[in-house]
What does this fold into?
Amino acid sequence: ENFTPVQGLIGGIIVGLAATMLLWFNGRIAGISGIFNGMITIRRKGDVLWRFLFIAGMVVGGVVHQFFILDTPSFQPLGAPVWVLILGGIIVGYGTSMGSGCASGHGVCGLGRLSVRSLVAVLTFLSTGILTTYVIEHVLGVAR
It folds into this structure.
């Protein structure tokens, strides 16, 4: 219902360029969970600023798009209790730790480097997401 191929293409190009520039200029993989984790658990002096700026750029980019690009800004509520969102965040965090990276790291950067491990990870993410959505909506009958 909200298919926007031009915006999707432009967004994909921007994400790809950001990931490429981070790898070229900083020697780092643009995996969001790893960047965020490194921001929280300071490893080296001077290693926090670029992480903070990367995360802040994503937030600011979303806000700019929401309020300056869209004709009518709208926020769609998730319709889930806060405890479910927190539990989901914890499970995702554990999964990214267990999988040695997140969907952005494996999907954008790993596949771009032709990593077999990243291909397996992305197929696992997608399969699990599709299965979970099917079970929640069609087996358990929980509507979005």
The chain has six helices and no strands. Helices lie at 5-26, 32-40, 49-69, 82-98, 103-112, 116-139. The two ends are 14 Å apart (CA to CA). The mean pLDDT is 82.
